[in-house]
Design brief:
The radius of gyration is 10 Å and the shape is globular. It has helices spanning 5-10, 14-26, 29-44, 50-59. The model has no long low-confidence stretch (mean pLDDT 84). Helix content is 74%, strand content 0%. By secondary structure, the protein is mostly helical. Helix 2 packs antiparallel against helix 3. It is built from 4 helices and no strands.
């Protein structure tokens, strides 16, 4: 699934922190790792990897 730039930005920052909290509560270490990479990329001002964005998107599905 290709995501536009808007979708990538939507999952940076606060949304990634929200998913991180939920994934931690559920013990979902794979999603936790993806969230951390998205947060790190956001803090560096970079675009997160598409695979990490897809992981965060799937968390809500």
């Amino acid at each position: 699934m290709a995501l536009s730039g808007q979708d990538q930005e939507r999952f940076s920052g606060e949304t990634a922190w929200t998913v991180l909290d939920a994934a931690n509560d559920l013990g979902d270490t794979i999603t936790v790792d993806a969230c951390r990479r998205v947060i790190d990329a956001d803090l560096r001002g970079e675009i997160p990897a598409g695979s990490d964005i897809a992981m965060l998107s799937a968390f809500f599905s």
